[in-house]
Structures are given as C-alpha cells and as structure tokens.
Amino acid sequence: MREALFIKQNSERWKGYEQIKAKSPDELAESFISITDDLAYAKTFYPRSNTTKYLNGLASRFHQSIYKNKKEKTSRFVTFWRFELPLLFYKHRKSLLYAFAFFTTFTLMGVLSAKYDSGFVRLILGNDYVNQTNDNIAKGDPFGVYKQADEFTMFAAIAANNIYVELRLFVSGIFFSVGTLYGLLQNGVMLGSFQYYFFSKGLGLQSVLVIWIHGTLEISAIIIAGAAGLILGNSLLFPKTYKRLVALKMGAKDGVKIASGIIPLFLTAAFFEGFVTRHTEMPVWLSITILTCSFVFITWYVVLYPALLNKKLNLNTINNTDETTF
Among 209, 245, 251, 247, which Cα is nearest to 227's? Predict the structure, then answer.
C-alpha cells in the first residue's frame, strides 16, 4: 500500500486517538493495540517517514498514559513473565547467542587449561576447596561440600552470591561490554576447570547427575545475565541511528528488565543447591528428571516460546493490515 493511501485510510482514526483523556480504560487498551499495529506496519514499509515518527509519538503517549503513575497489579507481573520478558529474549536473541558462544568458549578454555596444567585447578578453585574435596573423595562422599551447612543457610548464601554475580555481570557491561566479557571469562573458566577436575577423578557422570541439578538453571541464568550486560555495552558501542545517550537508555532499560526477570531462576537454582543437591544418594532417574525438566524449561522459555510468540504477534499485525487494506 502506498503511504498516501495508508494515511488517507487511517488519518481520521488517528486524530481520534489523540484525545487520550476522553477514553475509558478498555477503549484505551484497544486503541493502544491498534496504534501499535499501525506503527509496526509503518516501520516495515515506511521506516524513515514522518508518518512513522508521528505514530511512534502517538504510541508513546498511549504507553505513558497507561503505565505512568499506575500501581502495578498482579496481572502486570503475569504479563511481564508471560509476554514482555520472552519478547525481550527474542528481540535480543543475538546477544543471547553471543553470550552463550563466549561462555562456551571460555568453559572449553578452562577444560583445556586444567588438562594440560596440573596446577590450574588449584589456581582457579583454591587449595582449600581442592583439599577438602580430595578428602571427601577419599571418604567416599565426593560431593560432601554440599552438606556442610543446613539447607536454609546454604540457600540464602548461595542465592545472595548468585544475584550479586548476576548484577555485576550486567552492570559491568557499561564498560563497552568488556566488563561483562571478563565476568563470563571468569565464570566459564571456573566451570571448565571445576568440571574437568571431577572427570579426571573418574567422577564425571556422577558429577553431572549431582551438580547439574542446580547447575542447569544457574549457568543458564549466568549466560542470560551476560547477555543483559552485552545489551547495555553494545548500546554504547553500536547506537545505530539513535544518539548514544538515547541508545544507552534503551539498552539499560531492556537490560534491567532481563536481569530482574531472571532472578527467579537464581532463586530456584539456589533452592535446588541448598535443599536437593545434598541428597547425592537420590535415584538416578530422579536426578535425570530434574535435569531434563530444567533444560527443557530453559530451552522453551528462552528460545522456542519467544520465537512462537513473536511469530503470533507478526501474524496478528499482518491480518490487521490486510483488513485495513480492504
């Protein structure tokens, strides 16, 4: 459709949308959905036109009218994890992929370093941890370190530490992503050397069945936190057509949402580590079930569901556009 025809068919409706204060809450929500559909169409076919700028401003006014100075309700939290966070994952899927690729590379570096340098594991994990674990292996309880404190104390300490690590990964992205990459390097090398240590002791499979009960969610959340840091840093490095300050604000906003949105993952991982991992005698089938459920959830919620949700929204936009055309 030519831009002139698009404007002619919708200009009267847009003028009506300008009277935001006169609308009821239901009408406001319906109008907001409609104007964002028009904006999506305009961005696709007339990305640099005044029409797109006008619709973007109109949509922003609707958004502010709906959310500004409004108390958050329970439904808002549901909407955040059901729609907003998954769509952010899809929007920044490249940053997630880069974070995963970097972390995997750093983990392999840790594995190779531990394999070819006998002192590397002690350098990374510390003499106290290695000596204690060696003693536990000699006693026939290689994962006894997870039984040192009571369940709640371990849960609280681990949760606090993991959230601190997450926030540090995210905030350090302000240094043009270098800080985040360094944090991913630290965590990746530590994981690689840690995992190689148990494989070198002939406890590889057992370590996977025990440690990854909590590690699946914990490591996934660390990678996502790394992606949030890259989003923040890359907004400074690559502002695109925006002014650098504007791009930084946008990157920071999305990064904060992602970083805060994955806190439940860290809490769940800490719960598993504090209350479940210590039961090293649990049946193999139960351990595999927990691992599988965690992996399937992460894959679905971070990769598959966001793609399906985005596809559904695009189809709705196309259908609404087709209706307008006819």
Answer: 251
